[in-house]
Amino acid sequence: MRLASIKQREEEIAALVTPQGLLPVRALKALGQDFEEDLFSIIAKEQLDALKAWWETEGLQNISHWSKYVIPPDKVQYAPLYRHPRKIWGIGLNYVEHAADLEASTPKTEPASFMKPDTAIIGPGDYIEIPRQSNRTTAEAELGVIIKKRCYGIGEKEVMDYIAGYTTIIDMTAEDILKQNPRYLTRAKSFNTFFSFGPQLVTPDEVADLDNLKVATIINGKVHRENIIANMTFRPETLVAFHSQVMTLLPGDIISTGTPGAVVINEGDVVECRICGFEPLVNPVRDLKLVR
Questions:
Q1: CA distances to 6, 13, 76, 77, 134 from 9, in Å
Q2: Does residue 213 sit in helix, strand or coil?
Q3: What is the pLDDT of residues 84-100, one digit of tens each?
Q4: What H or E segment, with its residue span, contains residue 12?
Q5: Which domains does the chain have, with CATH numbers?
Q6: I want to staple 7 with a disulfide (CB 3.0 to 4.6 A). Which of 77, 110, 216, 284 is the partner?
Q7: Any residues with CB less than 8 A from the CB of 61 and at least 6 apart, and which?
Q8: Is the pTM of this model over 0.85?
């Protein structure tokens, strides 16, 4: 199953991705199904499994019955999957090649992680804004892992029971600020628009071979750097289990698993996170220093 958040009038609502287009979840109420209407609430209230079960047993087989509610893909305006997760964990230097970009060594014993605020969140098509304080900002394509239900102290073998799905992410860093002092990491990662998120949540059953998923950072249509999940130092299930030992993970929490490579961005650029089998995440760039 694939889900998205779409803009409809002044709202951002959950929708099922169908072969014909996007079916708002609220339309299912006309069919006697009582699910929450926004994606975060569907996850937080642990309705995801029930929605998936309905979709697989009734939804797909009877899609012609509610085709009138389906929005064609070319008429859809995506939003971020949601705006206010309780936590966003980012993972630094999780590929050896990216560590070399920063002239740093890859952590070998434990993941290098940091947290980001929800005020950094933007969605597909929104502008990434280079802040006035930075002259070297980078963008990084990453695979995101979304937590399905509350967990604390779990092991790697249990992790799949707690994953709602995966998504595409573009994470930004004010690299010149970070290079001044590693203690500036939180500030360098936390500017507004520094976390693009969406457009689709892909449930684990849709991902046949996680290890061989290819993640690519694209700049102006050209591949800057790409790599597969198997080449991560710490794989997604390791990251989830490790951070569950640190603090309770809650439904909707996000772990952004690290990038194969960051690219310097400038005014007028277009950045893309491309993951095989996923809808691409694309954002244009503007430099606030050039805005009058």
A1: 10, 10, 12, 10, 35
A2: coil
A3: 999 999 999 898 664 45
A4: strand 11-17
A5: 2-75 (no CATH), 88-290 (3.90.850.10)
A6: 77
A7: none
A8: yes
